[in-house]
């Protein structure tokens, strides 16, 4: 993959999305980073990526809980760069509660941001990819797209949905030079995971180290977090020519979690 491509990464001003943005920028690609905020820091982040890697990076505000904004994110990227070749559906949030107590608005937000957004962005991006005769859709699912944990009903439902959607998109594009795959990370130490630590410490009466080893990494046999660089590298691989026949599947980056 020598030509400069244009990549859109949803939810990418932090954590895994930001790591993927750096990895694709390091390959020289144009990158669109995104979140729902419109702050100087967001645009400064885009400039920082461009100056570090010598590529073109822009920040586009769009709220991934809203279908029309998901669609316009891809359209704006195509207007800016003339194409969208790589779409990484990464935006995601978590809410932890027993199903009987799960707030309806939290359920709706998790499903909208973690699953529905990928439907909207993919629908628009595929039109552009088919026109340009090349495309890569990479969905950031989760080990929770393949297995379950208690108290994460909306998240597990959304991530299983994303894995299902990945297979359907792969079949609908199977004869085109377009692939669609899902990466299923185990625990990666990002703000999303950090935010779960205080509640878990309180819930189990544990200190931070015990929560990390015995709760968060309980099911991750390597007992190590995956890194944003490892997820970024996996996206770069899926966008390479070596991965042209990999479609409709999941790649776990989970330290052995789903082998258990
Ligand atoms: P994070 O909280 O660091 O990043 C989430 C990103 O999504 C942020 O950039 C945030 O601004 C953005 N976002 C949230 N709501 C949005 C909205 N309405 N519109 C646009 N953007 C929005 O989290 P992360 O850990 O980097 O997670 C990224 C993805 O990876 C998520 O889909 C998550 O489910 C998945 N994942 C994370 C882990 C992990 O251990 N961190 C494991 C498996 C899967």
UniProtKB/TrEMBL annotation:
Signal peptide: none annotated. One of its GO terms (biological process) is monocarboxylic acid metabolic process. Pfam families: adh_short_C2. InterPro entries: 3-OHbutyrate_DH (IPR011294), NAD(P)-bd_dom_sf (IPR036291), Sc_DH/Rdtase_CS (IPR020904), SDR (IPR050259), SDR_fam (IPR002347). Its EC number is 1.1.1.30. Gene3D superfamilies: NAD(P)-binding Rossmann-like Domain. Keywords: Oxidoreductase. PROSITE patterns: ADH_SHORT. The keyword Oxidoreductase applies. GO terms for molecular function: 3-hydroxybutyrate dehydrogenase activity. Belongs to the short-chain dehydrogenases/reductases (SDR) family. PANTHER family: 3-OXOACYL-(ACYL-CARRIER-PROTEIN) REDUCTASE (PTHR42879), 3-OXOACYL-[ACYL-CARRIER-PROTEIN] REDUCTASE FABG (PTHR42879:SF2). NCBIfam families: PHB_DH, PRK12429.1. This is 3-hydroxybutyrate dehydrogenase. It comes from Oricola thermophila.
């Amino acid at each position: 993959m020598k030509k400069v491509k244009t990549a859109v990464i949803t939810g990418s001003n932090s954590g895994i999305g930001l790591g993927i943005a750096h990895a694709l920028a390091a390959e020289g690609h144009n990158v669109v980073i995104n979140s729902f905020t419109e702050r100087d820091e967001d645009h400064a982040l885009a400039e920082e990526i461009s100056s570090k890697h010598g590529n073109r990076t822009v920040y586009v505000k769009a709220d991934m809980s809203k279908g029309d904004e998901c669609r316009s994110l891809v359209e704006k990227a195509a207007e800016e760069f003339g194409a969208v070749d790589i779409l990484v559906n990464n935006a995601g949030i978590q809410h932890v509660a027993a199903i009987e107590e799960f707030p309806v608005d939290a359920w709706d937000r998790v499903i909208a941001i973690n699953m529905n957004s990928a439907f909207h962005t993919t629908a628009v991006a595929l039109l552009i990819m088919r026109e340009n005769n090349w495309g890569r859709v990479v969905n950031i699912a989760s080990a929770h797209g393949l297995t379950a944990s208690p108290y994460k009903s909306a998240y597990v439902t959304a991530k299983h949905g994303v894995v299902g959607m990945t297979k359907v998109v792969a079949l609908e594009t199977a004869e085109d030079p377009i692939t669609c795959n899902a990466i299923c990370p185990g625990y990666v130490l990002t703000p999303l995971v950090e935010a779960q630590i205080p509640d878990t410490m309180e819930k189990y009466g544990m200190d931070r180290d015990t929560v990390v080893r015995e709760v968060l990494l309980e099911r991750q046999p390597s007992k190590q977090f995956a890194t944003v660089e490892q997820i970024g590298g996996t996206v770069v691989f899926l966008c390479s020519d070596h991965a042209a026949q990999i479609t409709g599947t999941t790649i776990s980056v989970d330290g052995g979690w789903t082998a258990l």
